[in-house]
Amino acid sequence: SKTLFFISFEPFRGGLDCATVEPLFYCSVSSDLEEKRIPLPSNSQSLQSCTVTVFILFLQIPLRSDYGYKVSLFSHLHQYSRKAPLTQQISIPATVIHPSIVRLGLQYSQGIVAGSNARSVALLHAFKQVIQDYSTPPNEELPRDLVNKLKPYISFLNQCRPLSASMGNAIKYIKKEISNIPSQCKEEEAKKKLLLCIDNYVNEKITLAAKAISKCAIDKISDGDVILVYGCSSLVNHILCEAFEKQRKFRVIVVDSRPRLEGREALRRLVKRGIRCTYVLISAVSYILPEVSKVFLGAHALLANGYVMSRVGTSQIALVAKAYNVPVLVCCETYKFCERVQTDSFVSNELDDPDDLIVTREGKTQLADWQSVKSLGLLNLVYDVTPPDFVDLVITELGMIPCTSVPVVLRVKNVDQ
Amino acid sequence: MPGADKETDLGERIEAFLAELKRGGRGSGETARSTAALLRRITAQARWSSAGDLMEIIRKEGRRMTAAQPSETTVGNMVRRVLKIIREEYARSRGSSEEADQQESLHKLLTSGGSSEENFRQHFAPLKANVIEAINELLTELEGTTDNIAMQALEHIHSNEVIMTIGRSRTVEAFLKDAARKRKFHVIVAECAPFCQGHEMATSLSEDGIETTVIPDAAIFAVMSRVNKVIIGTQTVLANGGLRAVNGTHTLALAAKHHSTPLIVCAPMFKLSPQVPGQNSLTCVNAHCPVFDYVPPELITLFISNIGGNAPSYIYRLMSELYHPEDHEL
């Protein structure tokens, strides 16, 4: 059994270049834990007269190991296998990671909860559980301690599946709210306040935003339209269902791609409402585009340089739509706006399980033992970035803006806060 | 009677060939060779007295063959090649020189209708043997096409390149394997759903030691910025220099154009077809799963064929050297 591993050290007078870390106490040391040497800055005048206590929480969660051969261009990213979830490798005592967070992490890594909005909402609900079950230890202040408690949860979730931009923004918001709680506030009141904040966030940024975006977008849908959608975006599906309720006459073409085949879920939802749909794979998009009047795309995040980060294949659809002069509209809530910039799909992306690409056709599974062939690699990208010149309009709850106005919205949001 | 036996035997062989065409599943190289062999057999065994008769027979059989499998254009192309061979041999037997014909070709283009008086009715005894010999030369040419294309590989691939391809093309496979003997490079294969022929291509290339990566079709544009060249095969080369290729190729070509990446098409000459886009493009399509894409010529950088490299703007000239304009419609 393992416990937290506290390290503290005292620099001795005279300055130092580096200090070796001396454990003060520990129980059993797992071989997964690493020793860390932390070099202090050589100018340690300020440290001479104080004791620096560094709490390094070595999580009992070992780093999840990569699976399979990684394509060299992406060797800086992690590639995990769905068959080896993090929770199978170790047992996590409930004192360290809250069980609802463990459950959430499993749901992420197995793909049970997928989609930008769904993941953020699930995360916020799990955090509500955590806050409800939280009790301030003695001699601690709620704001600082709660934020520290959340750190290992977040890194655990990151190991299960890399955090999305929307989740990152939600976490930032929660941390800010927690730190803003006045210190004289009683614990019960503080917890109630935090739960209310989270509810408001979900309500404003996700539910009401979707309503506002639908209203704008429905104005853009005219009778007789043929609308092309890609994959399964909860927001775009919501818009189409609302438009259908409002008696607009249109039909939908759902484009899907291997290996995720998310379009089938979108197809199911639309057909259940009674919308006329056609289903194609992404390789047929240049065949079907001459019939299309508009393209509606969802987004995972909007980057500060105007690029749209979305499911892989979105940029391809936008490219072909541009070649056929079909307008491309991206629907995105403002809480997904991100201060990062990216110009290509290589530097910052997510690699999914490469075994998903294996398929059996005509009784033969060509790639069944791809691992044994040294020079063969499978690449299963999750996201790609669409340049702003392919996108004609972005519909947000603040209105309809061009792609290049994203940094303006970010600035205004920061000023508001 | 031996004549009747030969005829029924020929008839049976033609029926067997048509049945196999309908079944499909053969590569276009094989189809071209078996078509040429069948046409040679028709020339040898059918009853005809003048070149005109032979051309009529071949045209009739050619129409039946193209009707059996409209998407396999190599059959029609071989029929047109043989018709051109017959015309040339007839002209040579008659004594008019070939060189004059070629020199006048531009002149002929302007003064059309000059050959309508020719009705090919004269009987020449050695015509049969000459035609069969010419068809044998055609068969030899067909057998060497893949090797001829693969031989040019080292002129087009440098070391440490990243090459992208889509689906499975035997020509491109031979091309890349030939280059891999002397150069080290990476290949990215788009799998080309739903049949995923790209998987077969990738396993075959990686077994030869070429660094290969398989990507789903959706990732074509995402990785295109790191690709140096796109090399693809095609099902047909159209008369305007465009392509009819496996579906997903148009997207690949647009992505390559956007990144100014050269798009190279490896296609042997027997895939060159006098069709223009729009004809027959819907016969190979079912409602949700089109089998082929049309790629316009402005997205293509280079054609590599067994006779060398050409720009798409030159395809019309190659066409006139292979087929006679009157045979464009069988």
Task: Describe the SSE topology.
The complex is a heterodimer of chains A (417) and B (330).
Chain A: H1 86-89, H2 99-110, H3 116-133, H4 142-160, H5 165-179, H6 187-219, E1 225-230, H7 234-245, E2 250-256, H8 263-273, E3 277-281, H9 285-288, E4 294-298, E5 301-302, E6 308-311, H10 314-323, E7 328-331, E8 360-361, E9 364-365, E10 376-378, E11 383-386, E12 393-396, E13 399-401, H11 406-416
Parallel strand pairs in A: 1-2, 1-4, 2-3, 4-7, 7-12
Antiparallel strand pairs in A: 5-6, 6-11, 8-9, 12-13
Chain B: H1 2-23, H2 28-45, H3 51-68, H4 73-94, H5 98-103, H6 105-110, H7 127-151, E1 162-166, H8 170-180, E2 186-190, H9 197-207, E3 211-215, H10 220-224, E4 229-232, E5 236-237, E6 243-246, H11 249-258, E7 263-266, E8 285-286, E9 289-290, E10 292-295, E11 302-305, E12 308-310, H12 315-322
Parallel strand pairs in B: 1-2, 1-4, 2-3, 4-7, 7-11
Antiparallel strand pairs in B: 5-6, 6-10, 8-9, 11-12
Helix pairs in contact in B: 1-2, 1-3, 2-4, 2-7, 3-4, 4-7, 7-8
List keywords for this structure.
A: 417 residues; alpha/beta; seven-stranded mixed beta sheet; 11 helices; globular; B: 330 residues; Translation initiation factor eIF2B subunit delta (chain A); guanyl-nucleotide exchange factor activity (chain A); NagB/RpiA_transferase-like (chain A)
What does this structure look like?
The complex is a heterodimer of chains A (417) and B (330). Chain A is of the alpha/beta class and 417 residues long. Chain A is built from eleven helices and 13 strands. Chain A has helices spanning 86-89, 99-110, 116-133, 142-160, 165-179, 187-219, 234-245, 263-273, 285-288, 314-323, 406-416; strands at 225-230, 250-256, 277-281, 294-298, 301-302, 308-311, 328-331, 360-361, 364-365, 376-378, 383-386, 393-396, 399-401. In chain A, the strands form three sheets. In chain A, strands 3-2-1-4-7-12-13 form a seven-stranded mixed beta sheet, with helices on both faces. A three-stranded antiparallel beta sheet of chain A has the order 5-6-11, with helices on one face. In chain A, β8 (360-361) and β9 (364-365) form a beta hairpin. Residues 1-60 of chain A have low confidence and may be disordered. With 330 residues, chain B is of the alpha/beta class. Helices cover 49% and strands 13% of the residues of chain B. Chain B has helices spanning 2-23, 28-45, 51-68, 73-94, 98-103, 105-110, 127-151, 170-180, 197-207, 220-224, 249-258, 315-322; strands spanning 162-166, 186-190, 211-215, 229-232, 236-237, 243-246, 263-266, 285-286, 289-290, 292-295, 302-305, 308-310. In chain B, the strands form three sheets. In chain B, strands 3-2-1-4-7-11-12 form a seven-stranded mixed beta sheet, with helices on both faces. Chain B has a three-stranded antiparallel beta sheet with strand order 5-6-10, covered by helices on one side. Chain B has a two-stranded antiparallel sheet with strand order 8-9. In chain B, a hairpin with a 2-residue loop joins β8 and β9 (289-290). Chain B is elongated. Chain B starts with a helix and ends in an 8-residue tail after the last helix. The A-B interface holds A 71, 73, 257-259, 278-287, 311-313, 315-316, 319-320, 323, 344-346, 357, 359, 361, 366-367, 370, 373-381, 384-385 and B 188, 191-196, 199-200, 202-203, 206-207, 209-223, 225-226, 247-248, 250-251, 254-255, 258, 285, 287-290, 293. β10 (376-378) of chain A pairs parallel with β3 of chain B.
